[in-house]
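Dear support,

We are seeing what looks like truncated structure output for some complexes. This example has four components. We would appreciate it if you could run it in full and send us the complete token output so we can diff it against ours.
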Amino acid sequence: MKANKVTIHDIAKALDINSSTVSRALNDSPRVTKKTKEKILNKAKEMGYKRNLLASNLRKNVTNTIGVVVPRISRHFFSSVIQGIEETAYLEGYSVIICQSLEQLKREKNILETLAANRVDGVLMSISMETTNYNHIQELKQRGIPLVFFDRHPNISKTNNVLINDFKGGFDATHHLISKGCKNIVHFSGPQELAIYKNRLQGYKQALKESNIPFRNEYIISSRLMEHDGVNNIKELIAKNLIFDGIFSANDLAAIGAIKYLNEIKVNIPKDVAIVGFSNEPISTVINPSLTTINQPGFEIGKTATDLLLQHIKNQHTSLTTETIILESNLIERQSSNR
Amino acid sequence: MKANKVTIHDIAKALDINSSTVSRALNDSPRVTKKTKEKILNKAKEMGYKRNLLASNLRKNVTNTIGVVVPRISRHFFSSVIQGIEETAYLEGYSVIICQSLEQLKREKNILETLAANRVDGVLMSISMETTNYNHIQELKQRGIPLVFFDRHPNISKTNNVLINDFKGGFDATHHLISKGCKNIVHFSGPQELAIYKNRLQGYKQALKESNIPFRNEYIISSRLMEHDGVNNIKELIAKNLIFDGIFSANDLAAIGAIKYLNEIKVNIPKDVAIVGFSNEPISTVINPSLTTINQPGFEIGKTATDLLLQHIKNQHTSLTTETIILESNLIERQSSNR
DNA sequence: CTGTTAGCGCGTTCAT
DNA sequence: ATGAACGCGCTAACAG
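Here is the complete output from our reference environment:
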């Protein structure tokens, strides 16, 4: 920051008027004549004036900015949610600050601190896999910063959430496998602290139940669902000599790890693989043309969550009630062109 | 913003001291006694004081924040660069604001405006495919905001860049195909306004030349390299009845589109496909285990670019000379386990 | 419609 | 070592 010290005072002085008028003109206030407004805008452009949002926001005590916290931006589900958030926020004149926790509680805390210190007007977040204590979240709430969770939400009361019907997703995925003739379906699950994984597991159980297939605990493998976890899971199954003819993975990464490994050792036990993942995910469509996925409507989640958040931001005086919106996922079966 | 109106004045009043002392204590100034410092910090915590970074930054005229502009965060190359940026920035006490232009010039302009208005200390960016006029960039420079480009850079003088040796990447990719026995190699290229695509094309030409393979203009197809472009490219080739036995795609998306389509119509003309893409990209490794990629060291690029930017931010008085750093890409040939 | 005054919350002079 | 006062750049309140 060296050049560009042009302030509204400078341009006021140059025009021999008051800086308030300049401020009003720059904000397109109706309380200033067209003529002077024009004069001011011209002068401003001429002098290379640029508004200092820091000062403006400080004075107004509003930043028109919302913070977004996701585990990883590179995950296609999250980046599609972000797309929805940005579109919606932009239309309402809000800027978006994107942050990633990298699944680490420590970073998540740090991010919330920074966002709060920067006085964002609200926060949208999906919590990390490590997040089992919610002090940092409670603190944010106490500071009066509106908060909406999407997909992964903390297990505390009075929160606003935009969720996916994970029970149905798990049910559909499992049901699909059963309809394909699978009898021994393995489930790769995630940390049980996260409701999304718990719910998918419940859906899995329910689907088995309805088809009179006994639930077997050794078919459930919990991990953090990274690609290498998928590899390890499948290795473990093979080492145990467990019979399985289908896999329902609670996300795509772990499924990919598993499929890669199966390809590598030239074994192809599962008749089909269902993934609770994101259908737009390029991986899913490429890895196996016959792959079935549970489509999570990322863009719509982002849009819905943002709408809800903005509603809370704009009505902070009237104490709005908290809300949980549940969107539906869809099973998408691709054309099996290769086999 | 409703609760939490605790300021340094409040805590000063509570302790019957002056707010200056509080400010100094909170900034761990040596000019305040250990004892009072402790007293103040305790009181601050007790009262739930949170620094207002807007005010602090306004006063200091420094934000300790850098802006990052990329075409799309969902592209694995960019998200890995961002990883490198965040790690490096964090160690130096800087925050990062991530923005995506979605390959649109209009958005790119808008983003730079916002970043400048928010007084970021510097900007790291990779320009969009639409960016052929650089007024917005020149303006940012004129405002004295340090700027470093990575990967995609504008064609103007006196810029700081961290680039990849794309000529060598193109050469290596093509050479690899030739060594596999390909004689008729198609090249999917991008907008020629971007040096990266021009350079990859040059590398392609050079490799042909050294192997005495004649260059044929109809083998070069330029597009914006989205997945559907890859599909269209391959359709075009087939429609023209052009003979080809290899494809060198300037990015991974277009290659994936092409491969998908070839799979779909059960044609398998190319003996191999080389992609200039990112080796960590899950797609590349999954789509075809024998796929060869040109690895771009994203994390290192992010780190290098950030180091360079911070250097410029910190030495704004001493007029540093501009610099272009070129990192090497690597050809990675995977184990051909399937064929 | 425009000017005057005051202050957002903080950090940095000066003093003492 | 601490206090008093000013100002970063902008906008809201109140005049007129």
